[in-house]
């Protein structure tokens, strides 16, 4: 199959490959940046962030010299913030090394870089003949060859890695990896793949055995956790109270008072000492993450006197809130506060 598959795939890529800006450079920094951004992000959204990052931090040295706060603020809206934190730490590693690593083995030593990203950067930037196996590659290979070994099992990862590596051409490794990605992303898609116009329809085992919709196979391992809590937007004299998360998925980001939602009341001893009553802006706002579903109640609490808050909280000017990196859920809360405030002002003006 190797004799016909690789040439046919590259011919398809030469005609149908996506024209993406990071494919017009061999700069490993720009390529690595695109790979990190696109790990959990659609190309359309990711490209704008890639361009902003390169404009703000033209080189890996610029990124390493920045503050983590500035990196997180620029990342705001992309989610999966551990990617941004790892990106920043890896940039500092690279600068410390004095050069950008050129091999998959060296690249994997950088914070946040796994086998796929290491192979992608090595093949795209340095022409190393190594397979970059992502979800698209798993899907294309499992369907073409009718493989039902779970792709997230130890056996499956080893099998598909070896299989993909056996196909990598010495002269066009980067193009081959990009072709696998594009073919899976635009043609051999998870749902409604274009089988009737597929260049491999004659040899695709999944198509001829009516298993296209069944492959690839993936084991279900992760249990989804449901978390319920309340955000209290404390405002006093034009200032708001926020704190920076020290751990978890939103580590390094800022948020208002967070209180676990209890069965009897969302309130906490901190709030029980406050005379003013909070205004409920929205209830049970659903926010879905990879392994968690969050349900948040949004409260606004207008204060005349600043209360004693838990350690780590600070008061900042409300007008400067945009200078702090916020989780998407907090951005939604801030929008609700602004809408409520505007409506209250409008009511007062008409009374």
Account of the protein in words:
This protein has helices spanning 2-16, 28-37, 43-56, 60-65, 68-75, 82-97, 104-107, 115-126, 135-145, 154-167, 173-186, 205-208, 269-272, 328-350; strands at residues 225-236, 239-244, 254-255, 257-260, 279-288, 292-303, 313-317. The protein is α+β, with helices and mostly antiparallel strands. Strands 1, 2, 3, 4, 5, 6 and 7 form a 7-stranded mixed sheet that branches. Strand 1 and strand 2 (239-244) form a beta hairpin. The longest helix is centred in the last third of the chain and has 23 residues, at 328-350. The chain starts with a helix and ends with a helix. The relative contact order is 0.11. The mean pLDDT is 93. Its cofactor is [4Fe-4S] cluster. This is Adenine DNA glycosylase.
Write the layout of secondary structure elements.
Layout lengths: L1 H15 L11 H10 L5 H14 L3 H6 L2 H8 L6 H16 L6 H4 L7 H12 L8 H11 L8 H14 L5 H14 L18 H4 L16 E12 L2 E6 L9 E2 L1 E4 L8 H4 L6 E10 L3 E12 L9 E5 L10 H23 L1
Parallel strand pairs: 1-6
Antiparallel strand pairs: 1-2, 1-4, 2-3, 2-7, 5-6
Helix pairs in contact: 1-11, 2-3, 2-8, 8-11, 9-11
Enzyme class: hydrolase
Family: Belongs to the Nth/MutY family.
EC number: 3.2.2.31
How many alpha or pi helices? Answer: 14
Overall average residue pLDDT: 93
Structural class: alpha+beta
Percent strand: 5-15%
End-to-end separation in angstroms reads 79 Å
Q: What gyration radius follows from the Cα positions, in whole Å?
A: 25 Å
Unreliable runs, pLDDT <50, ≥5 residues?
none
Number of strands: 7
Largest sheet: 7 strands, mixed
Helix content: 40-55%
